[in-house]
Amino acid sequence: DARVTQTPRHKVTEMGQEVTMRCQPILGHNTVFWYRQTMMQGLELLAYFRNRAPLDDSGMPKDRFSAEMPDATLATLKIQPSEPRDSAVYFCASGLVQAEAFFGQGTRLTVV
Amino acid sequence: GENVEQHPSTLSVQEGDSAVIKCTYSDSASNYFPWYKQELGKRPQLIIDIRSNVGEKKDQRIAVTLNKTAKHFSLHITETQPEDSAVYFCAASKVGGNTGKLIFGQGTTLQVKP
After folding, report:
1. How many CB atoms lie within 10 A of CB A55?
2. A89, A8, A81, A9: which is closest to A46 by C-alpha?
3. Cβ of B106 and A42 within 8 Å?
4. Is A101 an interface residue toward B (CB < 8 Å)?
5. Residue B105: strand, helix, or coil
6. Cβ contacts (< 8 Å) between A91 and chain B: which residues?
7. Cross-strand partners of B33
8. How many CB atoms are located within 10 Å of the residue A80 CB?
9. Does A48 reach chain B within 8 Å, measured CB to CB?
10. Which of A7, A106, B90, B99 is the most exposed place for a label (fewest CB within 10 A)?
């Protein structure tokens, strides 16, 4: 049963610290999305990759957020420095060119 | 930019009744419209999708309709059951080439009362 794997599942960190979230997409998928979910904002698209190349990161605060795909089996989302308003659940999703997205279980981030 | 509006934000129905959730999209080039269900504390999961070359698609108690002219699409759940209680998200995307960005609506919290 192929699944998108995200680590860590939970992260509590102090304001100002760097946070790195990791995602292993489903083998063979060429599209990776990063979404942020809060109660007020629904599923907010942060970044989107096709064949490891970033196609759109317009939803991401550029001064503190960065997203990369060092290889086809790993996508990362970094926040530096983290702030309390970054507290949310971060989802990674992967798919094929048909655009159906399979979500990971999410990383619940709390910045205190 | 692309935008998807979803209504209502909350919906409460009695078990056995029907539920309808509506979405509108801004980008006329959108041609793929999935619906996701998210149970409390879990990941969103695809329940049904429709492409722009069809106007309606059904899967047991769930159906989706698409009106490309009006740029809106709807999810219909018939004979609702308590286990249908969840947050439902619509989304829109342009498929093919270097597109495929998936934009979600704000979500609808459905409560089915026994």
Report:
1. 14
2. A89
3. yes
4. yes
5. coil
6. 43-44
7. B50
8. 13
9. yes
10. A7
Residue A74 is classified by DSSP as E
- Number of H-type helices and E-type strands within chain A: 0, 11
Give the best residue of A5, A55, A92, A98 to mutate against chain B (max B CB count within 10 A): A98
The C-alpha R_g of chain A, in whole angstroms, comes to 13
The size of chain A, in residues, is 112
Taking an 8 Å cut-off on Cβ atoms, the answer to whether B89 and A105 are in contact is no
Distance CA B26, CA B5 (A): 9
Residues 6+ apart with CB under 8 A from B31: B51, B52, B53, B93, B94, B95
Q: How many residues does chain B have?
A: 114
DSSP-based three-state secondary structure for B83: helix
What pLDDT, on a 0 to 100 scale, did the predictor assign at position B71? 95
* pLDDT tens readout for residues A61-93: 889 999 999 999 999 999 999 999 999 999 999
* Token reading at A87: 């507290």
Please tell me whether residue B34 adopts helix, strand or coil conformation: strand
d(CA A15, CA B20): 42
The tokens for B26 are 């801004």
Provide, as residue numbers in chain A, all residues whose Cβ is less than 8 Å from the Cβ of B93: 99
CB contact under 8 A, B46 and A100: yes
Q: Quick one: average pLDDT of B26-55? A: 92
Query: Cα separations (Å) of A59 from A45, A62, B29?
Result: 6, 9, 20
* Coil vs helix vs strand at A64: coil
On the question of pLDDT at A99 being above 90, the answer is no
